[in-house]
Amino acid sequence: MRFKNAFRICPSSLIYLWSIFFNWCDCAQPIPKLFENATDFSKMKYPHEDVSGPKPLTTWIAAYEEVKAKGLIPHWKPSVVTNGEPSYASYSDAELASPEKVCSWTIAKCVMPDDIVTAPKGQMGISFDDGPQEATSLLLPFLLKKNQKATHFMIGSRIMDNPNLLKQAVSLNHDHIAAHTWSLMTTLTDEQAVGEIGWSIQIIRDNVGLIPAYWRPPFGDVDNRIRAIATHVFNLRTVMWSDDVNDWCLSDESAPTSSCLAGSGPQNSNELAKELNQIINQTKGPQQRDSGIIILEHEIAKRPVEEFIKAYNLAQKVGWIMKPIPDLFGYVFFPVRARFF
Fold this sequence. Notes:
Layout: H1 3-6, H2 11-21, H3 58-69, E1 80-82, E2 85-87, H4 93-97, H5 105-108, E3 123-125, E4 127-131, H6 136-145, E5 151-155, H7 156-161, H8 163-171, E6 176-180, H9 190-208, E7 210-211, E8 214-216, H10 224-234, E9 237-238, E10 243-244, H11 269-281, E11 293-296, H12 302-318, E12 321-323, H13 325-329, E13 336-337
Parallel strand pairs: 3-11, 3-12, 4-5, 5-6, 6-8, 8-9, 10-11
Antiparallel strand pairs: 1-2, 7-13
Helix pairs in contact: 6-12, 9-10, 11-12
């Protein structure tokens, strides 16, 4: 993290820090205490990779029970997977779309006031999901060359596979690291959600001594129950996106074609480039839009990263001001650090 980011003085940063230290988030206990008793990375016994809803640590459950007793965790039932998509048989469309009720992003694109969905006018949020992976080693040198900071929503299991890429993103690029889980979160029970979010934070903390303050749910699958767990147990802010190009369709395994059916995502690099260029150039540039943009992008494979690099150069030429997610709003990267780092 850059020194100036750590101590940037602006009203929003002061409010955010005040909420950390004085518990305005209604968190059960100071966030470092949830993770301070861990051993080092080489000795920590993590769950098996990609296990949905792994068993949480007892400290996380205790924190969850405390905020639940305060009435801060809604009692909405988990969704169920129907034809590969989450669905809620027990609730009406109005309840799913209501900020006062379920507020499902997946079903109704419902957002809450604290969700980050778009950027300020003229700005573009630079972020990537699903790292660190082999393609991260292509992305990081480009970002460093351009002196461009980015947000990486990293998966715990991928960090287990590629811990050095996480460390490079922090130590060389000074990038912003955020949490990313791996399941359809609304399908999990409360305890499973606590485990999946908690372990995602734990492995970041154990590797680089940083405790994330932001997270992004896979496929954007979030509702008010999951938001409440992320916010009140772990003090995480939910980050979504304004534009989606489905770049994940171009996985390494599907090269040179696509993992997606025609009409549901780009079939090749040229189609992905066209979609990115349309978003960047839409309405003749950044100053013609009422708000900025956050494009959902991934560092899972070579082709999506290559097309981001090309699109980045176009975005610079058009005039977008590109920043990692916290910098869009003047927020600090990591309000809390692990104590012994």
